[in-house]
Write a structure and sequence with these properties.
- The chain has 10 helices and 8 strands.
- By secondary structure, the protein is of the alpha/beta class.
- It has a 5-stranded mixed β-sheet with strand order 6-5-4-7-8, sandwiched between helices. A 3-stranded antiparallel β-sheet has the order 1-2-3, with no helix packed on it.
Length: about 300
């Protein structure tokens, strides 16, 4: 399937005005090479009502939404696509409250759940690792804590960031929330996100030492105005500005990973000439990735109970 997406809001509204058009678009994203029966592997089908396809070979009824982010949804596909357009057409994103107003939905919890499902769809499995020269550093996110000095914390999130060097600028980035700043955690992130043989630049934290499979440059003392890690520090600054701006700082530690996914998705596509292409990528990932269960999102403290209507 060629990269097929609307370029403007009027074009979007014209193309996705009804459920049938939305279902057809999702069908092409789900099976870009044509229908493939999950039961027998057949490639010929009839289209039924309600987003179902009937395999001509084994008569299995396949759902275009099953096995995707849209599985078990009670919302219209047109609402999902509209939400994805809003999320990707705003350069800095949109909050759950802002999206609720735009979509005209009565339940804040429904919109909040929908957004978190989309954020989890923003991570493409098997994406290429960072390579070349990569800067790595950590930061904290959360309220100031009394009695928690240095790297000891109670409710703050520890975030590790990797930024690829692209000439004098910044290439791709990766972010992750870590349980601690141990050697196992830091080295694990580096091995998961950076190609072996690359040059990794870090600060002087002892936990970074003994890093194998990389050219490791570790600077213990960083004089003022030092540009040694200026790329990753720039990314950290932009991340915090985004969290404070778009989301008013109201991002809890238990959900920070989802917001990091969204920030990386946006940053790595910041040079895209078309916002519609971001919509296409998000819709493509959402149609091809496994569904996000309510249990995996729901706060174990029930501070933000999840509405199953999403």
């Amino acid at each position: 399937m060629n990269e097929d997406y609307p370029r403007t809001l009027p074009e979007f509204e014209q193309r996705f005005g009804d459920e049938e058009a939305c279902g057809q678009y999702l069908l092409r994203l789900r099976w870009p090479q044509g229908f493939h029966c999950p039961c027998c592997g057949g490639t010929r089908s009839w289209i039924l009502s309600g987003g179902l396809l009937l395999c001509r070979l084994c008569r299995y009824q396949a759902s275009v939404t099953a096995g995707t982010v849209f599985q078990d949804t009670h919302l219209a596909l047109s609402l999902w696509l509209r939400a994805m357009w809003q999320v990707t057409s705003h350069k800095t994103g949109i909050s759950a409250l802002g999206l609720q107003r735009v979509l005209g939905l009565g339940s804040y919890k429904t919109v909040w759940t929908l957004l978190h499902k989309l954020r989890r769809a923003m991570v493409r499995p098997g994406r290429d690792p960072l390579r070349g020269v990569v800067e790595v550093d950590e930061t904290f996110w959360g309220r100031e804590e009394k009695g928690a000095d240095g790297r000891f914390r109670q409710s703050k999130s520890l975030i590790i960031v990797a930024a690829e060097q692209d000439g004098s600028g910044i290439g791709r980035i990766r972010l992750r929330s870590l349980a601690d700043a141990s050697r196992k955690s830091l080295h694990g992130f580096i091995h998961d996100t950076i190609e072996a043989g690359s040059t990794v630049r870090t600060a002087g934290l002892p936990a970074y030492s003994q890093l194998e499979d990389y050219v490791h440059i570790r600077q213990i003392a960083q004089p003022r105005q030092n540009s040694y890690l200026h790329r990753v520090h720039r990314v950290i600054s932009l991340l915090k500005r985004w969290l404070m701006g778009t989301h008013q700082g109201a991002v809890s530690q238990r959900y920070i990973e989802d917001y990091l996914n969204e920030f990386a998705f946006r940053f790595n596509r910041r040079k895209s000439a078309s916002r519609g292409k971001l919509f296409y990528r998000l819709a493509q990932y959402a149609a091809q990735l496994e569904p996000t269960t309510l249990a995996s999102i729901k706060d174990h403290n029930n501070l933000w109970p999840v509405d199953s209507s999403a």
